[in-house]
């Protein structure tokens, strides 16, 4: 029973079942090797834009801005300036790792029962998503501006030119975008601007291979390029967003001009911990990605995964149970740290990890329940209830290294596929507020991730930089909703414990356990584990698991790319 398919098998695998951002077919991927620069994004247009900026002498952050602006055009289902992002940045000269929080915020007059119906029950997910109710203050532009002020080399306006030019001349619609537009037509076409842009008069999605121009997006970007953040958070563009949200005819939201003007991207402390011979660093709260990945790794540190290997069901039992333990703590304790002081890094404390490791009992059986632990914390634990928020897998991740050795690892999202389905100025608005817990209380107890004015919803985005001997070694991240954590976790294990190349680790068929049941990636060798996992006591489902793992390894004088063939990713270098 082998998890590693041949290259021919991998390229032939097709995973067509629909999730909020489903896979279409496996792409072919060629590993790129470089010495100085590397760009890996989810779309060739974005990769080329970032590369063009590096060629002009731009920094990794400059290239990030251009890549993100192009992704918002060619991959509108996943990310854009109407959404939010988290970014890790490594300054090679200063030998400093920084993390930027561009997560959306809840409007200032939002009620805590925004996602509760008249009968006191949580709204069905798409009733909450489609329309203005789910829209938070977008943070991508603020994150880009803040990081550019500190680490940019080229003028702000220059960074907008690739996306403006591509929006004006048009881009060729990919089969993937066409498929997603077709599947989401009933929701997306409810918005007149989106309907006019993405569909013809008969309601058919723009065809694969057709050229799609977006003059409205070009106009919006020109405004922001000239005026900076004021062009987005103030003035006519901000007013258009507020009006679209607040005046929605069936599902209005609470966004205001004051909310837009007061938004700020923030610097956060990265979350780092040792695993094997490396240090794994990720994003801190309000993203749960860094903490949950690192806690899972810490729980597995005493397990001999290397000896058992990827083809052992016991390896996957241990990985799944460690993930369950970390997700249990995530559900109870992780939220916006500006609103809730949880245990945070105490979840990685050695004594606490040892306590939780005792639950990874030998015997090859799934535990019936995996409750959250009791780490040291200031807030009384009796005041909190665990919860499971809905978080959808429509996101993007990209990684960049510039000539000076500076690094960007950034995950960006509008949450669900096509976000709230509201289009303004040629871009889509997020539905990130649905990443809050729908119910502010569970069993009469407060939920850490409940809605509050100005609060940032918990995320699972996990941009990651791994250090070896105090130098950057591996840059990685993925889309995938809360499964992001598992995708990044198993990629790290596959490389660090099982000795796979980064490309092999990314291609490894997905096997995900967050809450006690196992999900196996359809059409892959993962399905061979179904019987053995069921024998251990797990419920097992086979489904499309559409990651978008992108990154690279810095090994001596070589930089080696890793591109997820489940999406349209590409890697390139100036070298």
Q: Could you explain how this protein is built, in words?
A:
By secondary structure, the chain is of the alpha+beta class. The chain folds into two domains: 7-170 and 213-267 and 389-572, Gamma-glutamyltranspeptidase, small (S) subunit (Glutamine Phosphoribosylpyrophosphate, subunit 1, domain 1); 282-383, Orthogonal Bundle (Serum Albumin, Chain A, Domain 1). 33% of the residues lie in helices and 17% in strands. The chain has 20 helices and 23 strands. Strands 1-22-21-17-16-9-8 form a seven-stranded antiparallel β-sheet. The protein has a seven-stranded antiparallel β-sheet with strand order 7-4-3-11-10-2-23. Strands 18-19-20 form a three-stranded mixed β-sheet. α3 packs parallel to α6 (156-169) and α14 (289-300) crosses α16. It starts with 6 loop residues before the first helix and ends with a strand. It comes from Motilimonas pumila.
Give the topology, please.
Elements: H1 7-12, E1 33-34, E2 38-41, H2 44-55, H3 60-74, E3 84-91, E4 96-102, H4 125-129, H5 140-151, H6 156-169, E5 171-172, H7 175-183, H8 185-188, H9 192-198, E6 211-212, H10 215-227, H11 230-233, H12 235-246, H13 257-262, E7 266-268, E8 271-275, E9 278-282, H14 289-300, H15 305-308, H16 313-333, H17 350-357, E10 394-401, E11 407-415, E12 423-424, E13 427-428, E14 441-442, E15 445-446, E16 464-468, E17 471-476, H18 484-496, H19 502-507, E18 511-513, E19 518-521, H20 530-535, E20 540-543, E21 550-555, E22 558-563, E23 570-572
Helix pairs in contact: 2-3, 3-5, 3-6, 6-10, 14-16, 14-17, 14-18
């Amino acid at each position: 029973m082998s998890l590693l398919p041949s290259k021919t098998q991998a390229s032939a695998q097709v995973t067509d079942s629909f999730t909020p951002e489903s896979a279409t077919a496996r792409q072919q991927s060629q590993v790129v090797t470089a010495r100085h620069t590397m760009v890996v994004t989810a779309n060739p247009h974005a990769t080329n834009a970032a590369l063009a900026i590096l060629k002009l002498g731009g920094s990794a952050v400059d290239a990030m801005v251009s890549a993100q602006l192009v992704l918002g055009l060619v991959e509108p289902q996943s990310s854009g300036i109407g959404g939010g992002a988290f970014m890790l940045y490594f300054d090679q000269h200063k030998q400093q790792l920084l993390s930027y929080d561009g997560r959306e915020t809840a409007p200032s007059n939002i009620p805590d029962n925004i996602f509760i119906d008249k009968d006191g029950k949580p709204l069905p997910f798409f009733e909450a998503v489609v329309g203005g109710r789910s829209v938070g203050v977008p943070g991508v532009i603020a994150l880009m501006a803040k990081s550019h002020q500190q680490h940019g080399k080229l003028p702000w306006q220059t960074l907008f030119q690739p996306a403006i030019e591509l929006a004006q001349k048009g881009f060729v619609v990919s089969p993937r975008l066409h498929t997603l537009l077709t599947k989401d037509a009933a929701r997306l076409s409810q918005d007149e601007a989106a309907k006019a842009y993405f569909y013809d008069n008969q309601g058919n999605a723009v065809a694969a291979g057709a050229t799609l121009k977006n003059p409205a997006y070009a106009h919006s970007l020109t405004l922001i390029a000239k005026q900076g953040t004021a062009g987005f958070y103030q003035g006519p563009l901000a007013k258009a967003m507020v009006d679209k949200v607040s005046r929605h005819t069936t599902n209005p939201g609470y966004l205001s001009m004051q909310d837009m003007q007061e938004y700020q991207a923030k610097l956060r402390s990265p979350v780092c911990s040792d695993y094997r011979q490396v240090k794994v660093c990720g994003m801190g709260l309000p993203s749960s990605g860094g903490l949950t990945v690192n806690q899972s790794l810490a729980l597995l540190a005493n397990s001999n995964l290397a000896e058992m290997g990827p083809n052992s069901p016991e390896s996957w039992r241990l990985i799944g149970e460690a993930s369950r333990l970390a997700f249990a703590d995530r559900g109870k304790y992780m939220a916006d740290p500006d609103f809730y002081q949880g245990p945070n890094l105490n979840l990685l404390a050695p004594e606490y990890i040892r306590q939780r490791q005792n639950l990874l009992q030998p015997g090859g059986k799934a535990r019936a329940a995996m409750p959250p632990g009791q780490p040291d914390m200031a807030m009384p634990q009796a005041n909190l209830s665990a919860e499971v928020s809905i978080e959808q897998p429509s996101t993007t991740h990209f990684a960049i290294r510039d000539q000076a050795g500076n690094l960007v690892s950034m995950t960006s999202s509008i949450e669900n596929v096509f976000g709230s389905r509201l289009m303004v100025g040629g871009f889509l608005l997020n539905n990130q507020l649905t990443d809050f817990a729908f119910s502010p209380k569970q069993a009469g107890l407060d939920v850490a991730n409940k809605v509050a004015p100005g609060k940032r919803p918990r995320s699972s985005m996990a941009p990651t930089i791994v250090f070896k001997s105090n130098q950057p070694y591996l840059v990685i991240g993925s889309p995938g909703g809360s499964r992001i954590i598992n995708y990044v976790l198993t990629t790290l294990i596959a490389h660090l414990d099982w000795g796979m190349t980064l490309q092999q680790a990314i291609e490894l068929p997905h096997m995900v356990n967050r809450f006690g049941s196992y999900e196996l990636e359809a059409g892959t060798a993962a399905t061979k584990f179904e019987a053995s996992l069921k024998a251990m006591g797990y419920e097992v489902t086979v489904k499309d698991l559409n990651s978008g793992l992108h990154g690279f390894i810095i090994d001596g004088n070589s930089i080696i790319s890793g591109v997820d063939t489940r999406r349209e990713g590409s890697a390139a270098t100036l070298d």
